[in-house]
Design goal:
Elements: H1 3-10, H2 25-31, E1 43-47, E2 50-53, E3 58-61, H3 64-67, H4 76-88, H5 99-110, E4 116-120, H6 123-140, E5 146-152, H7 161-166, H8 170-173, E6 183-186, H9 191-201, E7 206-213, E8 216-217, E9 223-224, H10 227-240, E10 243-247, E11 271-274, E12 285-289, H11 309-324, H12 327-348, E13 353-359, E14 362-367, H13 375-384, E15 387-388, E16 390-391, E17 396-399, H14 407-424
Parallel strand pairs: 3-15, 5-6, 5-7, 7-10, 10-11
Antiparallel strand pairs: 1-2, 2-3, 4-12, 8-9, 11-12, 13-14, 14-17, 16-17
Helix pairs in contact: 4-11, 5-11, 12-14, 13-14
Length: 426
């Protein structure tokens, strides 16, 4: 069954699929911790780039689980892979060889600069693994007693204690101190700040051991990396022995129009991480490294669920589908269409919109700093217009649809966004 056929069939809700009464948010809130500021919307079904709420209303999904549902919802290849793998073998311990894990690792190695892969469950876990690997490398190879990892202001690397410390945004760290020591923040795309930090911090037992950075800052406002900056970072790391680590959790796996974000920058990292789009919505994370820094020994790092047959079998199908169906070509074309459309809207609202930027199908529309309008205002009204969007900070509306989004769907989304902006700017 083709994805278009799937979408057409899903347009008419199956009998009995629409709830007879409104979703009980009170019961939900009584049972579930309030760790999210949720929009008043309960979703229960999806197909392609569309989702339906419990009342049967249809929406274009330009959130995709926050850059996660690579192939959209209920993609035939994923449905088949999920069914096949769950009927075969879904979980065993990493104490045994897992063929699906080996196949997925080999695919990643063949399609990237990596030599080795470690599997886990999420982006935060992948970044934790990278931090641990960098610290061990610092102690055992670089002979650094107190290693420091440089990260960027406005970055985002996860919600664990170490990764929120690595995240250069104080709002995520508030009330969770004492934070993990060994991190220092520099401005993004500012090579002078990096050089100054390395010079200032390399004193006594302290030395910079690694630089952990996003090729494009996602949560920090959809800010692409500067090519010259990243090439200079690579040069600095080559000259000093400092490890260069890329967080590709949001921008990797084709989201940028290339398989990996680093391909936009003309450099290769020593270590990089992936999650989100890797499993197309099935939880999986991965840390990849070059052979020279693959120094973990048995027992030094592990994950019970990481790399199990189910997650790896489905993720491999996502990878193969991206390649077989030439989806990256669609990402480039639809990304250009989306940016051009957003720029045309921005030109109509210069007092409210300052910039449109991004790569492929990760794009941001930034609002003017001096307006009281915030991204959440547009996101809320866009829901009424039938399109789901997500903020990337207070002043940036983020557009991250499934990578299979069509030309017609992008046009529909642009019309809805323009209508939403017209409403909130009245």
């Amino acid at each position: 069954m083709s994805i278009q056929t799937l979408i057409e069939q899903a347009t008419i809700p199956p009998s009995g699929s629409v709830s007879s009464s409104p979703f009980d948010t009170d019961s939900f809130n009584e049972a579930v911790m309030s760790t999210y500021a949720r929009f008043p919307l309960a979703l229960e079904r999806g197909a392609g780039c569309r989702v339906w709420d419990t009342q049967g209303r249809e929406y274009l999904d330009f959130v995709a689980g926050i850059a996660t549902c690579t192939l959209g919802h209920a993609h035939p290849a994923m449905v088949e892979a999920v069914t096949r793998q769950i009927q075969k073998l879904h979980h065993v311990s990493n104490l045994y060889y897992i063929p699906e894990q080996g196949e997925l690792a080999q695919w990643i190695i063949q399609h990237s600069c990596a030599d080795r892969v470690f599997f886990c469950n999420s982006g935060a876990e992948a970044n934790e693994a990278a931090i641990k690997l960098a610290r061990k490398y610092a102690h055992t190879v670089l002979d650094i007693e107190k290693p420091i990892i440089l990260t960027a202001n406005a970055s985002f690397h996860g919600r664990t204690l170490a990764t929120i410390t690595a995240t250069g945004q104080p709002k995520y760290q508030k009330h969770f101190d004492p934070l993990v020591p060994g991190f220092h923040y520099v401005d993004y795309n500012d090579i002078g700040a990096v050089e100054a930090a390395i010079s200032e911090l390399d004193e006594g037992d302290y030395r910079v051991a690694a630089i952990l950075i996003e090729p494009l800052q996602g949560e920090g406002g959809v800010r692409p990396g500067d090519v010259a900056y990243f090439q200079k970072l690579r040069q600095i790391c080559d000259e000093t022995g400092v490890l260069l680590i890329f967080d590709e959790v949001q921008v990797g796996m084709g989201r940028s129009g290339k398989l990996w974000g680093y391909e936009h920058l003309g450099v290769e990292p020593d270590i990089f991480t992936s999650a989100k789009g890797l499993g197309g919505g099935i939880p999986i994370g991965a840390m990849m490294s070059k052979k020279f820094c693959d120094i973990f020994q048995p027992g030094e790092h592990a994950s019970t669920f990481g790399g199990n047959p189910f997650a790896c079998g489905v993720a491999l199908t996502v990878c193969q589908t991206l390649e077989r169906d030439n989806i990256l070509q669609n990402v480039e074309a639809r990304g250009e269409q989306l940016r051009n459309g957003l720029k045309a809207i921005a030109a109509k609202y210069p007092n409210y919109i300052s910039e449109v930027r991004g790569w492929g199908l990760i794009n941001g529309l930034e609002l003017q700093a001096d307006t009281q309008l915030v991204a959440a205002d547009i996101v809320k009204v866009a829901i009424d217009e039938g399109v789901l969007l997500v903020p990337a900070g207070p002043k940036v509306v983020r557009f991250v649809p499934p990578l299979i989004v069509t030309e017609a769907e992008v046009d529909t989304a642009l019309k809805a966004v323009e209508a939403a902006i017209a409403t909130v700017t009245k």
